[in-house]
């Protein structure tokens, strides 16, 4: 290898398909350019794809363009119509090919500028192994950081296989998918579909929003399987299959444990030392948490729940499974959240009506204490109505998977605070109305001892029953324990 080729190789930067810039170029028309709107007589020919040297321009099914060099087996997403240094690009490809010594591998190159110097981002695709590779050591921290135990090679390989399918999603030209691959993909989706039907906190719920969408995917794969068998597979179907395979392999990486095989699906190998799948453990292997002081823990949880949270932090955590946002649980969370906000608005309205009634009854709301408590209760009730309305709008925005994922992963405590505001206002409004009523009775009506004792006894019964209901409804749940 010559010194010039060695210098060019040093300009190579290893990347992976998801880092490629795609369809981001802005097309500008010159102001003084005259457009030709004439259609020639009997002009019906189909123009051939433009050629730039040995590079052929291809159109992606989604509308973007990319280029393929058949003699060098190389792809690029760079717009060669405007690229000024095609010879240097070809020289880098020749140097990289000479160093790789792998004629069967596909090369993807994207020229770029780095610190004022021309560099070449690249990766190799190994079709017979379904993986991508590089010619030098590559730090894949960004690529593998979402995976579990990424130091293990099988986990890295799964992500590299996911990127392999991502490549053919971006560059479907010359890709061939066998019938066995489509059939296995249908079986894999079918297994996820069965899991989603029988288990709400499922892998399928983490990847797809609804069962209808999964059924549509299965139906589409069935159509593609028929096309493959008849030799009619088009690039549109290739893009669809590769996108589904990329999604599945990415979640395989994110969720896999130790014993894995790269040629089978997540549901077949996700295990840890022969233990059942983590999601099944969540729902089926449970026992109560041990607490050193059960009474204090129960009272503390009830107080925090009543005064601060409409649902517990554990309920919010269940909206994501193993760090992946669970679409089904998010939807349930939003529905419960909106329903609870409506109930709190209604309860706050009843509390405000009670405050107004205390003011209108002669003598009952005459004392300063009763007036202060009822006035504060009335204002807090108004705040509850406005807060509940705005929080319902926030719940609608939580219907977006990206929006929900942002708060559930990065702003979880902020989410707890936001969901706590209507409940906090509602509880204060009701308590203020009750205390204002009692203050008005004891300050002006001068009740008998029997009436005072009866009121305190009844109030104690009501508070105790409410505490029991609060603990049962919002208190600590069950701890998921792995079977030993």
Structure description:
With 484 residues, this protein is an alpha+beta fold. The chain has three domains: 114 residues, no CATH class; 118 residues; 195 residues, no CATH class. Helix content is 57%, strand content 10%. The protein is built from 17 helices and twelve strands. The strands form three sheets. Strands 1, 2, 3, 4, 5, 6, 7 and 8 form an eight-stranded mixed sheet that branches. Strands 9-12 form a two-stranded antiparallel ribbon. Strands 10-11 form a two-stranded antiparallel sheet. Helix 13 runs antiparallel to helix 14, helix 13 runs parallel beside helix 16 and helix 14 packs antiparallel against helix 16. The radius of gyration is 32 Å and the shape is elongated. Keywords: Membrane, Transmembrane, Transmembrane helix.
Labels describing this entry:
about 475 residues; transmembrane helix; alpha+beta; 17 helices; membrane; transmembrane; 3 domains
Q: What is this structure, in a nutshell?
A:
With 484 residues, the protein is of the alpha+beta class. It folds into three domains: 3-27 and 50-138, no CATH class; 165-282; 286-480, no CATH class.
């Amino acid at each position: 290898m010559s010194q010039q080729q060695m210098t060019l190789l040093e300009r190579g930067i290893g990347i992976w398909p998801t880092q490629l810039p795609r369809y981001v170029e802005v097309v500008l028309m010159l102001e003084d350019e005259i457009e030709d709107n004439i259609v020639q007589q009997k002009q019906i020919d189909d123009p051939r794809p433009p050629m730039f040297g040995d590079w052929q321009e291809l159109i992606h099914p989604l509308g973007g363009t990319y280029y393929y060099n058949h003699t060098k087996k190389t792809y690029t997403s760079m717009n060669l119509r405007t690229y000024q240094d095609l010879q240097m690009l070809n020289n880098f490809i020749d140097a990289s090919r000479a160093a790789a010594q792998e004629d069967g591998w596909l090369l993807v190159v994207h020229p770029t500028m780095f610190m004022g110097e021309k560099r070449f981002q690249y990766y190799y695709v190994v079709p017979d192994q379904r993986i991508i590779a590089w010619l030098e050591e590559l730090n894949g921290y960004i690529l593998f950081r979402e995976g579990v135990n990424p130091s293990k090679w099988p986990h890295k390989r799964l992500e590299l296989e996911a990127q392999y399918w991502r490549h053919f999603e971006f560059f479907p030209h010359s890709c061939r998918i066998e019938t066995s691959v489509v059939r296995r993909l249908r079986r894999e989706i079918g297994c996820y579909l069965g899991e989603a039907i029988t288990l709400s906190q499922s892998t399928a719920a983490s990847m797809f929003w609804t069962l209808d969408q999964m059924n549509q995917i299965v139906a589409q794969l069935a159509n593609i399987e028929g096309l493959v068998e008849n030799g009619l597979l088009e690039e549109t179907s290739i893009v669809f299959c590769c996108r589904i395979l990329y999604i599945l392999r990415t979640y395989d990486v994110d969720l896999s444990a130790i014993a894995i095989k790269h040629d089978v699906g997540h549901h077949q190998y996700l295990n840890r030392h022969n233990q059942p799948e983590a999601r099944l453990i969540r729902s089926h292997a449970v026992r109560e948490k041990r607490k050193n002081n059960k009474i204090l823990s129960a009272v503390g949880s009830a107080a925090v729940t009543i005064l601060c949270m409409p649902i517990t932090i554990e309920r919010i955590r269940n909206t994501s499974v193993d760090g992946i946002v669970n679409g089904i649980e998010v939807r349930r969370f939003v529905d419960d959240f909106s329903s609870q906000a409506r109930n709190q608005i209604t309860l706050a309205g009843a509390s405000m009506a009670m405050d107004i009634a205390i003011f209108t009854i002669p003598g009952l709301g005459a004392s300063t204490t009763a007036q202060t408590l009822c006035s504060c209760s009335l204002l807090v009730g108004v705040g509850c109505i406005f807060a509940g309305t705005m929080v319902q709008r926030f719940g609608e925005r939580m219907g977006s998977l990206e929006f929900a994922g942002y708060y559930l992963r990065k702003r979880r405590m902020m989410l707890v605070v936001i969901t706590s505001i209507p409940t906090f206002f509602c509880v204060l409004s009701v308590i203020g109305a009750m205390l204002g009523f009692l203050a008005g009775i004891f300050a002006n009506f001068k009740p008998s001892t029997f009436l005072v004792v009866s009121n305190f006894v009844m109030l104690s019964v009501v508070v105790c029953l409410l505490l029991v209901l609060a603990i049962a409804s919002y208190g600590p749940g069950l701890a998921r324990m792995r079977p030993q």
